[in-house]
Amino acid sequence: MTGSEQHLGVVVGVDGSGNSDVAVRWAAHEAAMRKERLTLVQAIALPIPGWPPSNLRELCEADAEAILDDAVTNINDFVKDGAPSDLNRKLLFSQPASAMVDMSKNADMVVVGARGLGALRRVLLGSVSTALIHHAHCPVAVIHQDASLYAEATTAPVLLGTDASAASELATEIAFDEAAMRGVDLLVLHAASDTDMSHILSTTYSTGLSAVGEMLTERLAAYQERYPGVSVQQTVVDDRPATHLVNLAASAQLVVVGSHGRGGFAGMALGSVGTAVAHASRTPVIVARSQ
């Protein structure tokens, strides 16, 4: 980031939908916890030049400003005393997905609402959400409209999906940081394989899982020293990490996954575990992306 570029803090996409409203509230709470700026973004893709009416840009701009005004009211009404102290708003005439990916270069986190159907095998994530979790330059939080954000979830743990590799270090750090800020436990899930191993399980395999658990403990030790107030619970499972994460997410307030990894998640670039969890989980999901 150059000196002339503005640091955007936590960026959230705004479009006036119910998904967006929930994402805005979550982002405001996150920015307040982090003591960071909150940037509201409304990006508009205009039709081709010459499409009537001639004052289309002015009409779209007025509508977008009203939506941004509503987002500010949403924050003030819902977050109240915990609202971020530094609130910024931007209106861009650009394709929303490309605009948000570009803004992620100067952000600490991008938050976006998601549209989904909820089952691992029958899901539809919005185009902006999909673009961000694959191409953003910072962590991406995907928030579903029916997520239980506050009253029911404030004491629930943060859930981390990790393969205990170097590729999952960012996700691990984010998860510990989120648990510390929220004052809750951290549940760490590691899967020994990404495929169904039930047909070949044996005593030898179970012994191997025990060794995996010991390795995971070693990888987490440094983080536990840095975050002594965070109580960690480890779970090592045989296989199917996405399924286990989605099931456990139902009793968590936040899920953190890496954008790629090796080991327990077997080299799956986000196209597998991370995407499946972001699609299917009703709980907010942070995908740990970076520059």
Automatic annotation (TrEMBL):
Residues 10-144, 157-289 form the UspA domain. Belongs to the universal stress protein A family. This is Universal stress protein.
